[in-house]
């Protein structure tokens, strides 16, 4: 039996967000949930139902339906290489026939790298590079005689392309004058595009800090007066945007080249654009790159660099097409064909929306020219998939979540998604990347009790008795976004803490679990759950510990529902 105290006014905020459409439910349960839980025979979960008849989070809001559903999963996989393996007899015969040619190409590749590196070393000798000078007064343009010397490296770059089988490259259109379009943006399919643009334009590029330490490559990109950026540091991103703006504004610098997707794709989709190229507000010239092929997909997707290079060396010829679109500015919007203009589009007054719409317009024009579909996947999805590959999972594309949409809708950062992924990978996903309820709760040291089943059903909106990482991430994000969530977390701590220590100890946590009518846990299970909540590992769950752990794993708030609602569980013997 339970007695209920009046709940705090702060906990009466409707939980359902605008982005989720309510669906009628039956007796508090989702109409499509048909799990064979013996709910009628199992004891009432004190605080788990919270008046919702089966909704473990109903205590957060009286009006929240028990069912929710994110938008449908996109079937697109923008990172999958079409020919990652060896394609049978044809490829074997071609490799044998081209073996002497491949050996000659490898020699040409090595000589080109050596000559280009030597020329670059001479061009940079005695000149303070970007990294040293940027901290003092800002990098100045490379002197003219040094730029002329870099032509040796640029010709070496063309020889490298030749060694990879790009004997000729089909071009459509030509670069606009730098004064008209100081920023160039391109789709990113392979490591070939940076080599091509280095030869064709010798631009300034935006590059990850880590590339500076790569042998040969680091020296060459320094000659391009590279703009370094740590994509996970807001301060670094802001500094990079300022540097893009400064160099784009000065005609003494070369064009600024950016790949706004932030990573390579298979060329059959465009992923979400980063906004660094568009925040400065200068006209940009979109360039699209295609690699027509029959037997060999040249994209750098789920294929190792060594295998990709070997396949390029053993091709008779690799095709590459470069189309240059009309320069793009904030005042115009173009759909490909090359000569068709649309009415003037004026930028919004808010600068951030300005960059957003500018990026969207450019992305749409490039997608239309490529005849591909723009998607809500982003660089974060490639990181998620790479981590799944590293963990030895199969069908790793099943772990992708459309990170750009998740971030826009729920405000979840890539680092937060990666932290949740670590937990999900420890739950023993099957070959399809799905986790069942038993493995889900075992990771936290809990048995699959009636309350735990109800919590799991919150994620399992498809009623498949297993969930994907996408469902796990979006379900957590949806809970965390609710206006009453933070108040509920604070109330949980205040009503569970030891008044003498102002911490939640093992005894208090055990009382919480008993009040939720969970089954008796083993000592190992209790210790596992306690360590999950004790973030700083100081043998006590402080308020900061509980807030941090519930922010990361918000579904755990259901374990504290009885205390939040003031319920008292009385065991009748």
From TrEMBL:
Keyword Thylakoid carried by entry: no
Keyword Transmembrane tagged: yes
Gene3D superfamilies given in the database record: EF-hand
Biased composition (Low complexity): 1-19
Protein species of origin: Oryza glumipatula
Keywords: Acyltransferase, Lipid biosynthesis, Lipid metabolism, Membrane, Phospholipid biosynthesis, Phospholipid metabolism, Transferase, Transmembrane, Transmembrane helix
Disordered: annotated segments: 1-54
Entry-linked CDD domains: LPLAT_LPCAT1-like (cd07991)
InterPro entries, per database record: EF-hand-dom_pair, EF_hand_dom, LPCAT1-like, Plipid/glycerol_acylTrfase
UniProt pathway: Lipid metabolism; phospholipid metabolism
Organism lineage: Eukaryota, Viridiplantae, Streptophyta, Embryophyta, Tracheophyta
Domain EF-hand: 521-556
Protein name, per record: EF-hand domain-containing protein
Gene Ontology CC terms, in alphabetical order: membrane
Pfam families xref list: Acyltransferase
GO biological process: phospholipid biosynthetic process
Family assignment from sequence similarity: Belongs to the 1-acyl-sn-glycerol-3-phosphate acyltransferase family.
Cited PROSITE patterns: EF_HAND_2 (PS50222)
One Gene Ontology molecular-function label: O-acyltransferase activity
Subcellular location: Membrane
């Amino acid at each position: 039996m339970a007695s209920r105290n009046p709940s705090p006014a702060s906990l009466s905020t409707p939980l359902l967000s605008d982005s989720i459409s309510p669906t009628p439910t039956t007796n508090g349960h989702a109409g499509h949930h048909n799990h064979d839980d013996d709910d009628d025979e199992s004891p009432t979960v004190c605080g788990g139902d919270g008046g919702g008849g089966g909704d473990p989070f109903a205590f957060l809001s009286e009006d929240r339906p028990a069912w929710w559903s994110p938008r449908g999963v996109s079937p697109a996989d923008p990172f999958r290489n079409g020919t990652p393996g060896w394609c049978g007899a044809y490829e074997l015969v071609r490799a044998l026939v081209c073996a002497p040619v491949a050996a000659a190409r490898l020699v040409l590749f090595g000589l080109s790298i050596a000559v280009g590196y030597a020329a670059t070393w001479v061009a940079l000798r005695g000149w303070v590079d970007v990294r040293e000078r940027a901290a003092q007064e800002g990098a100045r343009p490379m002197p003219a005689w040094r730029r002329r010397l870099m032509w040796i490296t640029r010709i070496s770059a063309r020889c490298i392309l030749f060694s990879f089988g790009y004997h000729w490259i089909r071009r459509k259109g030509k670069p606009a004058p730098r004064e008209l379009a100081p920023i160039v943006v391109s789709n990113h399919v392979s490591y070939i595009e940076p080599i091509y643009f280095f030869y064709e334009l010798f631009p300034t590029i935006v590059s990850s800090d880590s590339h500076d330490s790569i042998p040969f490559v680091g020296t060459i990109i320094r000659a391009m007066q590279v703009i370094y950026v740590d994509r996970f540091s807001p301060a670094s991103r802001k500094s990079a945007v300022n540097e893009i703006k400064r160099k784009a504004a000065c005609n003494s610098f070369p064009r600024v080249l950016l790949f706004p997707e932030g990573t390579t794709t298979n060329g059959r989709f465009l992923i979400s654009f980063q906004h660094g190229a568009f925040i400065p507000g200068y006209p940009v010239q979109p360039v699209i790159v295609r690699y027509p092929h029959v037997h060999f997909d040249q994209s750098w997707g789920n294929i190792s660099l060594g295998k990709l290079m070997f396949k390029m060396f053993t091709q008779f010829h690799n095709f590459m097409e470069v189309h240059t679109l009309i320069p793009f500015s904030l005042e115009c919007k173009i759909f490909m064909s090359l000569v068709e203009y649309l009415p003037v589009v004026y930028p919004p007054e808010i600068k951030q929306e300005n960059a957003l719409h500018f990026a969207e317009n450019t992305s749409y024009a490039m997608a239309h020219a490529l005849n591909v579909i723009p998607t809500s996947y982003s660089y974060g999805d490639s990181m998620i998939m790479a981590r799944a590959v590293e963990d030895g999972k199969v069908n790793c594309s099943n772990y992708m979540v459309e990170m750009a949409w998740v971030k826009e809708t729920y405000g979840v950062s890539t680092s937060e998604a990666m932290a949740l992924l670590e937990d999900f990978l420890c739950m023993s996903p099957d070959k399809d990347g799905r986790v069942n309820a038993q493995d889900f709760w075992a990771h936290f040291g809990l048995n699959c009790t009636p309350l735990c089943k109800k919590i799991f059903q919150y994620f399992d909106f498809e009623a498949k008795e297993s969930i994907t990482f996408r469902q796990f991430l979006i379900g957590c994000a949806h809970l965390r976004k609710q206006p009453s969530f933070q108040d509920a977390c604070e109330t949980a701590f205040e009503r569970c803490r030891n008044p003498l220590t102002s911490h939640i100890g093992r005894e208090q946590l055990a009382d919480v679990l008993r009040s939720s009518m969970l089954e008796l846990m083993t000592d190992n299970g209790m210790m596992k759950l306690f360590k999950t909540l004790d973030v700083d590992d100081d043998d006590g769950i402080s308020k900061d510990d509980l807030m941090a752990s519930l922010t990361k794993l918000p579904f755990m708030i259901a374990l504290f529902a009885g205390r939040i609602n003031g319920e008292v569980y009385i065991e009748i013997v």
